[in-house]
Amino acid sequence: MRVILVRHGESEGNQQGIIQGRLDSQLTARGLRQSFALAAALADLTVAHIYTSPALRAQGTANVLASKLGSRISVDERLQERDFGRLQGINAMEAQKQHPELFDALLSGDPLRVSSQGESLNNVSHRLFSCLKTLNIHHQKDTVIIVSHGHALEIAIWELKGALITDDLRQYGHQNCSYSIMNIEDECIQLVKWGVATHLRDI
């Protein structure tokens, strides 16, 4: 199975610098343009199915991809963004000033460290890779697209790059509507590319 891991387009929360987590917000006009640019970049692929987080910003991106690529969509709860607990809904700069320890926990490669009332890296990694294993059963020879979130994708790449406790997760960051590619065969997951964003140069 080939997997195209996509971060959703720019959302209203992204535009405002808000730590969104499980909170919802719609795509901005720029987010829609990014989604169409991504669809054009992937137009040569034969996509068996698109799986998306239930968040509106992810579903909005998935809908654009589906309309352009002729694919069906399914929602999977396991593709949600990391739960950021008490920091959800706070501007990122303010969170860094007011809650430096909680904010640092979001960037840390410590698999058990939790931002207050939120999820650990281990929790997020477990549900993401559980989803991938399930999809591989049904799509062994297919290409599928997964639309998820920035921090969730950072955690997936962190896991595949060695899951070092000393890592700053920002080094695995994805721009809105950038993507990564992985191949899955049986229990083997190969990371082919990550953070591809050349299609967004003029957006």
Automatic annotation (TrEMBL):
Pfam families attached to this UniProt entry: His_Phos_1 (PF00300)
Keywords recorded for this protein, A-Z: Glycolysis, Isomerase
Name of protein: Phosphoglycerate mutase
Active site: H8, E81
A Gene Ontology molecular function term of the record: phosphatase activity
InterPro entries found in the cross-reference section: His_Pase_superF_clade-1, His_PPase_superfam, PG/BPGM_mutase_AS, PGM_Phosphatase
UniProt: substrate binding residues: R7, H8, G9, E10, S11, E12, G13, N14, R57
GO cellular component entries: cytoplasm
